[in-house]
Batch of 2 targets.
Target 1
Amino acid sequence: MARRTIVTGSASGIGRATADLLRARGEQVTGVDLRDAEVRADLGTRAGRRDALESLAAAHPGAGVDSVVACAGIAAQRPATVAVNYFGTTALLAGLRPLLARGTDPRAALVASITVTSALDEAIVAACLDGDEERAVARAAEAAPHEIYPSSKGALARWVRRTCLAPGWADAGIPLNAVGPGVVRTPMTGGLFADPAMKAVMDEAIPMPLNGYAGPEAVAAALAWLTSPENTHVTGQLLFVDGGAEVALRGEGPR
Ligand SMILES: NC(=O)c1ccc[n+]([C@@H]2O[C@H](COP(=O)([O-])OP(=O)(O)OC[C@H]3O[C@@H](n4cnc5c(N)ncnc54)[C@H](O)[C@@H]3O)[C@@H](O)[C@H]2O)c1
């Protein structure tokens, strides 16, 4: 029987490449996005998340789902980024866990970012991990704008570590991981490439000695493995798919 997979952000970029790859492998993919998806929902709002979860549960009666790949996200330097990236992702994954528990070789993964290695606003991160969306969004309105996106992704990476061993995940045989892409050529980064000054800043902040900028397929391949039955023992990890950027920025260790 085909693996039943849910991919958020399936209309564009990394999510689209992931959905395409998994469909090519014979999986039955249900996409979730603002548009051009089987389930259209705004994951930046509580009502949108609730509607998405209701639609996904209705579409997967009985045997549930086998994997969830959460890619939907935005990079805007505004408070809404915290709502979409952190709360949209964690609410969906937590809400889909009961469906995963009924699946076969269930797996889950989300997309963080190389920017978790940069300065984070710890008050945003703390509010996220407390599950306090109003406080997180309010803090983001006060924070340095360039720290909002990295903070939303840093909070996701910590949520993965906190959640992967919580009841209902590892003890139910469900690995939960993240990938941390470097610079990926998608519509999200199109504006950066178009502006020489922005591109220079980006190249300095995120050096990618191994093969340069990535295509979305490179990230999709990592997500596909993390959520495949082959992954039996990797959980709680942030796998950088970044052309060596994390090593270039952080050096040898300690580990
Ligand atoms: N492109 C990069 O360089 C890069 C690097 C690191 C991490 N990421 C992360 O990868 C993920 C995918 O980014 P991408 O580069 O493919 O971008 P993209 O803009 O091509 O795709 C993002 C998708 O998410 C959807 N989305 C946005 N807000 C949504 C909402 N409120 N509800 C439902 N869907 C929503 C969009 O409609 C879009 O289809 C994001 O989480 C992003 O932060 C991207």
Note: The pocket of nicotinamide-adenine-dinucleotide is lined by residues 9, 11-15, 33-34, 42-44, 71-75, 84, 88, 111, 113, 181, 183-184, 186-189, 216 (CB under 6 Å).
Target 2
Amino acid sequence: MSNTNITPLRKPAEAAHPIHELISERWSPRAFSTRPVEHQKLHSIFEAARWAASAANFQPWSFIFAVKEHAEDHARILETLVPNNAGWAKEAPVLIITVAKLYDFAGREYHSYYDLGMAVENLVIQAGDLGLVVHQMGGFDADKARELFNIPAGYNALTVIALGYPGSADDLHPVLRERELAPRERKPLEEFVFEGSWKQAAPDAQA
Ligand SMILES: Cc1cc2nc3c(=O)[nH]c(=O)nc-3n(C[C@H](O)[C@H](O)[C@H](O)COP(=O)(O)O)c2cc1C
């Protein structure tokens, strides 16, 4: 069990160029404190998601959340997770299913997944500013989520998010503790930023 009085583990990005502190400090921990998340903070993170940009202002995102105090709802979200995720995410005080609406008013497929990602990134950055940590998970059963949470046709559950205050890596299984402490890695800019043409690296963007 995590206590509520620990010094959060920091794993700031080793950025090759200056970036905002909220971006460099964000990472995906698996250790959560038992401290509940205040409702006002939850409102703020969803408010941040609300103000994301979206194609044609379609706002095709929805969130289904459960707090640990509502044990049945929390357990139902946990049930959708693959065992490797459920093992640590069960300690997270808040679990959130993210859902994208697939079609616009004319029944056309839109940029729904992109827009949902934009909203989630807003949520993640706002959470960081409030001292919270977030771990997103694709490892879950979307069909089970549809069934357990009555998600209608035309909407797809995309991820589950674990949210809470940071906990202690000491409380994790040794394998997860090792991952928790491992350095964060990224491809260099020249592998994915091109100037003028595909695969043409921007010379002054390199680390
Ligand atoms: C869409 C998405 C799905 C992810 N799925 C999982 C998952 O199922 N289990 C997990 O432990 N981490 C998952 N992650 C976390 C990533 O592994 C993590 O973001 C990545 O390794 C980079 O680490 P960082 O977030 O600490 O910088 C997911 C992240 C995203 C954005």
Note: The chain has a mean pLDDT of 95.
